[in-house]
Design brief:
With about 90 residues, the protein is mostly helical. Helix content is about 75%, strand content about 0%. The protein is built from four helices and no strands. Helix 2 packs antiparallel against helix 3 and helix 3 runs antiparallel to helix 4. The longest helix is centred in the C-terminal third of the chain and has 24 residues.
């Protein structure tokens, strides 16, 4: 799990305005952090199927958020992809 400080750091880095906690950029950044953390866990614990399901759900949720952002603002989408280093 993320600590409060780590989550606040991610939110402050990707927020689009003051008080922003729910924009697609912030949500995708938080999901990407969770995905990388869970991926590292699964490299060690290969038979942890509950975590694998959780990882797949987070990947799908991030994909839907990115699709939404791509439909509504291609510029913001491209910027976020470059900042996070995602392949698309």
């Amino acid at each position: 799990m993320l600590t409060i400080d780590e989550k606040a750091a991610i939110i402050s880095e990707y927020k689009t305005h003051e008080g922003d906690t729910g924009s697609p950029e912030v949500q995708v950044a938080l999901l990407s952090n969770d995905i990388s953390r869970l991926t590292g866990h699964l490299r060690i614990h290969k038979h942890d199927f509950n975590t694998r399901r959780s990882l797949l759900m987070k990947v799908g949720q991030r994909r839907r958020q990115l699709a939404y952002l791509n439909r509504h603002s291609v510029d913001r989408y491209q910027t976020l992809i470059k900042r996070l280093g995602l392949r698309r």
